[in-house]
C-alpha cells in the first residue's frame, strides 16, 4: 500500500493502526532546501559506521553522523556514538522541528544516502535511552525515497510505502516503535543523493 495523500504544508496524520505518525511534504526551513542539502553534504564530517548484527559485523550502506548535547550518547546494533557539538545550521533546523512537532530534542542522527545503492534496513527505534514512547522527527532533503513500514506482529497487514519528499517532515510518536518497523530500500535505477536528519531525545 502506497500513501501519497498529502498536499498541504501542515502536518497531517497517517492513518495506520497501532501508530501515531504525521507527515508534511513541504516545510519552511528558513532556507532553500537545495542549498540546505548542499551545505549538509559538504559540511558534515560523514563516516562509514560498522554495526554488529546477529554476531557479525557489517558496514552500513550509507554515511552517518551524530550530533547533540554533550551527554546525548547513543548506542544501537553494537555501535556507540559520542555526539559532535551542534552546528549553527543544525541548531536552526532543530528549532524549526521543535516548533512544528511541539517537542524538544537533544540530538540528531544524520544519514547520507549517496545514490540508489544506499539503504536502511528494517528496524524500530526502540533503544532504552530513547524512552518508552520516543518522539522521532525525520527531515528529508534531496532525492525522493520511499519510507517502508511493516507491522511487527500483524502479519496480515500489508507493508506501507510512504514517499518522502524533498523538504518534508515525518513525525513518529506514541506506541509507533512498539508495533512498526521502518526502512529505506535500495533502488534498481540510479538516483540522486538524499540526506535524512532524525531528531531525538536521549534520556
Which features does this protein show?
Jelly Rolls; mainly beta; 3 helices; single chain; seven-stranded antiparallel β-sheet; 37% strand; 203 residues; globular; four-stranded antiparallel β-sheet; 14% helix
Describe what you observe in this structure.
By secondary structure, the chain is mainly β. It has a single domain (12-200), classed as Jelly Rolls (Sandwich), CATH 2.60.120.590. Helices cover 14% and strands 37% of the residues. The strands form four sheets. The chain has a seven-stranded antiparallel beta sheet with strand order 1-2-13-10-15-8-5. Strands 9-14-11-12 form a four-stranded antiparallel beta sheet. The longest helix is centred in the middle third of the chain and has 14 residues, at 88-101. The radius of gyration is 16 Å and the shape is globular. The model has no long low-confidence stretch (mean pLDDT 93).
